[in-house]
Amino acid sequence: MGDMETTSFDQLLMDVIREMGVLRPDQILPGWSLSLSEIYALNLLAERAPISQQDLGAALLLEKSSITRLVQQLEQRGWILRERDARDSRLRLLRLSELGARMTGEIHHHMHERHAELFEQLTPDEQSALIQGLTALRHALQNTPMGHKRRV
Predict the structure, then answer these.
(1) Rounded CA gap, 51 and 57, in Å?
(2) Cβ proximity of 28 and 34 under 8 Å
(3) Comparing C-alpha atoms, which of 103, 106, 108 is closest to residue 74?
(4) What is the DSSP string of 52-110?
(5) Bridge partners of 82?
(6) Where along the chain do its domains lie?
(7) Tens-place pLDDT, residues 84-139
(8) 120 versus 33: which is more confidently predicted?
(9) How far apart are CA 119 and CA 113, in angstroms?
(10) CATH class belonging to 34-142
(11) What is the pTM assigned to this prediction?
């Protein structure tokens, strides 16, 4: 990829992230200040609970200290519960509280509506190209070794 194409890709990716409201947690779900980590954690708990804090951190690709803070924040909001594992009393498992399950449903509903509105603004060819491009980008990201840093 040439320098101009790289700059264009870099700028487009940053613009999309900014326009999606990712940098402003209060824009993701109006009226709530949620980080992407919180949204992804709630989503994972809705899909996989009960799950250990360690497994949640691994799924979110977060360091131990970051996942500890995230779990504490979600627990303080009353959205998750910690309970002892019946098989191993040293292990604490996480699951959504009733409030957390309702909140996760609201988040899913809001995000689905917002994404559908955006997608409908595209032509069928643009929709197809976007799905193909995002699928390829996800695949490339999944095949990039974690912790690999490019020297400048």
Answers:
(1) 10
(2) yes
(3) 103
(4) EHHHHHHHHT--HHHHHHHHHHHHHTT-EEEEE-SS-TT-EEEEE-HHHHHHHHHHHHH
(5) 94
(6) 34-142
(7) 888 888 888 999 999 999 999 988 898 888 889 999 999 999 999 999 999 999 89
(8) 120
(9) 10
(10) mainly alpha
(11) 0.74
